[in-house]
Write a structure and sequence with these properties.
alpha+beta; 5-stranded antiparallel sheet
Length: 159
Amino acid sequence: MMAALEIKKYPAPSLKAQARDIAKITDEERGQLRDMADTMYLNQGVGLAATQVGIDKQLAVIDVGEGLMNLVNPVILRRSGWESMEEGCLSVPGIQVKVRRARRIRVRAMNEKGERMTFEAMGLFARAIQHEVDHLRGKLIIDYLNPIKRFLVLRRGKE
């Protein structure tokens, strides 16, 4: 059974919140990850962070076409090779922002079983992880714009 959660839209306060670390992964977190994945797929997203659905935990789900990956307490250890690309966000619908991100990253996280993992990510996979980690730190794609451009983009998005 699919469970869709409500995706919070800008300017919902949960989107600016810094999510808290998870000490121990329980069935509650595993259920939240499943519901987040269902929600991501139903909305044709490639990633979703817990703060986007009002959950104050360091949880993210990502699938850029290579299978679902659950990330708990994700940390980016290293970044290299920068590139700028247009990004969209389920929490800021109808808006595309050019964001400069690392092409290659090294990530440390846990999976849904609580197993620690460290891995390299490149391309769209790396970009999606960086986008979701930003969410868990209370940062949105519009925060990459200067204040005047942000105002204009948000006004255009409301039209």
